Amino acid sequence: LERAEGGIVKEDLKSLFHGRTEGNSVSRTAESNGNVEISLTKNTNNIRIILQHISGAPVDVNNLHFTITDKNGLMNYDNTLLDDEVITYKAWRKEAGHASMGEQVEAINGITEINVAIAELTVSRLVVENEPILTITNDLGERIVTIPLIDTALLSKRFENSSMADQEFLDRQDEYNMTFFLDDGDKWMDAYIYINSWKVVLSNHDL
């Protein structure tokens, strides 16, 4: 894992896979060909954050700062995490996006265009024992969103595969799309979020 001084990662990490096998041997002098199947775990995850204003007003992406903090930069041969410093992952891509409602769609509350801010971060393996935090702040240092990343990612598990163990679910996913909505005060409306294609109502969750 390449990182700058102080444990900062601000680039798109290359895809990293881990796999190991036991009880198999491979010899260069073997007279016949053989296959050994090794299951791989993808140890890099892409986190795409979308911020949308409920009023339809543009969201100034240049005024926003996206970070994820975790202690997951060092991994052992068996894919468990080793002790490490706190790593701060920063967005390697930020841009504004918009979509017109078009003439065929009736405007609701006068909104004729959807405006969003989009940010992408790449993080190392997510492990249930850790507590990575996603934080979004503005230029004034005010926190717009602060959530536990793993707990939030697991909210969609009940829609996709509720019987799967939490760690297996995290290891099988490698991309998370999270959409947050801002109120008139440019604060997160914490009633619901979208995770991948699922709308998650947060009435029973303390984030």
Structure description:
This protein is mainly beta and 207 residues long. Helix content is 8%, strand content 36%. It contains three helices and 13 strands, in the order ββββββββββαααβββ. Strands 7-8-4-11-12-13 form a six-stranded mixed sheet, with no helix packed on it. Strands 1-6-5-9-10 form a five-stranded mixed sheet. A hairpin with a 4-residue loop joins strand 9 (133-138) and strand 10 (143-148). The longest helix is centred in the C-terminal third of the chain and has 7 residues, at 166-172. The chain starts with 7 loop residues before the first strand and ends in a 6-residue tail after the last strand.
Keywords:
207 residues; mainly beta; 6-stranded mixed beta sheet; 5-stranded mixed beta sheet; 3 helices; 8% helix; elongated
Q: How far is the first residue's CA from the last residue's CA?
A: 29 Å
Order of strands, widest sheet:
7-8-4-11-12-13
Radius of gyration, taken over Cα atoms and rounded to an integer in Å: 20 Å
* Overall outline: elongated
Overall average pLDDT: 86
Task: Enumerate the spans where pLDDT stays under 50 for 5 or more consecutive residues.
Answer: none
The number of helical runs is 3
**Structural class, judged by helices and strands?**
mainly beta
Number of strands: 13
**What characterizes the major β-sheet?**
6 strands, mixed
